[in-house]
Amino acid sequence: MAATTDTDHEEHTAAPGSAPPDRPRRRGRIAAAVSVLGELLITAGLVLGLFVVYSLWWTNVVADRHADRRGDEVRDTWAQDPPGRAGPGALNTKDGIGFLHVPALSKGEILVEKGTSMKVLNDGVAGYYTDPVKAELPMTGKKGNFSLAAHRDGHGAKFHRIDKLKKGDPIVFETKDTWYVYKVYGILPETSKYNVEVLGDIPEESGRKKPGHYITLTTCTPVYTSRYRYIVWGELVRTEKVDAERTPPKEIR
Predict the structure, then answer these.
(1) Which fold would CATH assign to domain 55-252?
(2) Angle at the Cα of 129 from the Cα atoms of 76 and 167, rounded to 5 degrees
(3) Between vectors from CA 83 to CA 82 and to CA 86, what angle results, nearest 5°?
(4) Which of 146, 155, 174, 251 is the most exposed place for a label (fewest CB within 10 A)?
(5) Catalytic residues
C-alpha cells in the first residue's frame, strides 16, 4: 500500500468541511454590486456639486454681465441729454428706470427694471412690482410705496446681504435727473410669500399709518430657499438734483 503524505491527509480531511463551491461567486457578485453603487453615488455627488456651482456661481456671472451691459445702455441713453431735460432717457421702463445704491448690500449699483417675474429678476436686476400690487414710482411725485424685489441667491443675488441692513441705513435711488435718499425704518425678517400687505401704499405692518413716500425691498428667506420673504422698509428723507458731474449724495460717497 502506498504511503500517505501530510498533503494527502490535509486534502482528505479538509474536503468534508469546505465551503460550497458557489459561495465565492456570490461574494464576488456582492462586491461588484457595491462597487457599482459606489461609482453611482460618486457620479451623483459630482452632478449635484456641478449643479450647485452652476446655480450659486455661474448664474451670478452670467446675470452680472447682462445687468452691467444693460446698465451701460441706460447710462449711455442718459448721457445723450443733460440732466434736467426731459429727453428719451428720463423714464425708460423697458431698459431700466434707474439704479439702486445700498451700501449695506454692496458697493455697486443695482439696475431697476419693470416687473418681478423670474424672466426679469434672473437678469441680475431689481424689479418693481406691477402685480399683485402696483409700485408707485418716485418720479411721479405721488405718495405711495416704491416696492422692489431681487434674488437673494443665484442670478446676481443682488439682495443676498439684505439681513445686514439696519434701521437708519441709507437706500438711494438714482434716476436721470434726481437722487432719492431713503432711510430704513422697519425690518420684517420673515413673512409669508403671500403677504401682499407689506407692499401696500401705506405699509401698516411697518408701523406707518399715513400716506408717505416709502420704499420696500423684498427677497426670499431663509438663504438658499424661497419659503418666506424678508422685508425692509424705508422712507424718503430728501431728494437731490443730479448735477453735470452726477455727484452722488454724501450717503453713498
Answers:
(1) Sortase; Chain: A; (2.40.260)
(2) 90
(3) 85
(4) 251
(5) 151, 220
